[in-house]
Amino acid sequence: MNFSAKMIAGFLHGTIEGDPETSINDVAKIEEGRTGALSFLANPKYEKYIYTSASSVIIVNHDFKPARPVNATLIRVENAYEAFAALLRLYEQSKPKKTGISSHAAISASASLGKDLYIGDFTIVEDHVEIGDMAMIHPQVFLGENVKIGAGTILYPGVKIYHDCVIGANCILHSGVVVGGDGFGFAADDTNVYSKIPQLGNVVIEDNVEIGANTTIDRATMGSTIIRQGVKLDNLIMIAHNVEIGQNTVIAAQTGISGSTKVGKNCVMGGQVGLAGHINIPEGVMIGAQAGIGGSVKEGGVAIIGSPAFDVKDYYRSYAVFRKLPELRKQIMELENEVKDLKKKG
User: What is the pTM of this model?
Assistant: First the structure.
């Protein structure tokens, strides 16, 4: 389908520089632009590509000032990245949605099914499951007893939701996600033999949460493991029992959060972060990649990095020193030798 620059600018409430009738029928990264494609420029380090890109239309910020002529038609908006994302969402919504319930799905007679559902081949829906309107349950999904799935939620192939867990509305769970597996709870006796502690709680995932492929969220020992609304989890994340993740927190891949840790809202974690158990991370904390957090963070809104982690400014000041340790060691040894020589001469 073809769209004109004028149509796109109207949707985005943007202003046009160039030909408003320029037609696009594709999207492309600005550095890989081609005729008929729409691109965007948000990060200044990509500015060099706007002067050579073959894209027909490029979305830019209102305050962008080109250093030399640009061949493409420009659409100026308040935030180019958000505007481009809005267009992609519109395109995604325009694609036809799968509907209908496969005859190869195994669905309990006691399950409650909403309207306009899609349930794919070889999905299993056990007793007393509730699925909201317009949910999409792709092939080979497992929904255990008493599971609740909110309206508009999408479960991609191979998602497993254990019994009694609750998934909110408009969530997206990608392939391989496991929600409600047993928490890692064991007690050792006097002979150091471990016995399993029954995990009797559940997992509650609130609305508008997205969870990446092969992420696992363990059920609580008692009570609930809770993922608050708007949380975004990347692939390959492990959330242990009784953890609580605050709303709109974003966590990158391969992060592990130990049991009973509480993470506040609006936090950001880089990849491969490790959090010890029974600690608190306040609101708005930013944690750099591969940081190790062994204790509670005392102050909200700070940025920390390192293992063990500490304030990011202090870390970089320290890094400026410890990266030079071999050179400093050499200088100290030379000074020691000079001191020895002076002592001998004295």
Answer: 0.85
Instruction: Reply yes or no on whether 241 is catalytic.
Output: yes
Identify the pLDDT of residue 31. 96
> Which stretch of DSSP H or E encloses residue 298?
none
Place of tokens 């979305």: 59
Edge to edge, the sheet with strand 142-143 lists: 106-107, 124-125, 142-143, 160-161, 178-181, 216-218, 238-239, 256-257, 274-275, 292-293
298-337 per-position pLDDT tens digit: 999 999 998 888 788 888 888 788 788 888 888 999 999 9
Query: Over 90: is that where the pLDDT of 297 sits?
Result: yes
How far is the C-alpha of 182 from the C-alpha of 160, rounded, in Å? 13
Q: How many residues does the chain have?
A: 346
Strand 250-251 and strand 232-233: the pairing is parallel
- C-alpha span between 78 and 44 (Å, rounded): 15
- Region of residue 49 (left: phi > 0; alpha: psi -120 to 50; beta: else): alpha
Q: Where are the alpha helices (DSSP H) in the chain?
A: 5-12, 47-50, 80-94, 312-322, 325-345
Percentages (nearest 5) of helix, strand, coil residues in the chain: 20, 30, 50
CA separation (Å) from 169 to 75, 100, 172, 230?
34, 19, 9, 11
Pick the catalytic residue: 13, 104, 241, 278? 241
**One-character DSSP codes across 132-148:** -TT-EE-TT-EE-TT-E
Instruction: Give yes or no for residue 1 having a pLDDT over 80.
Output: no
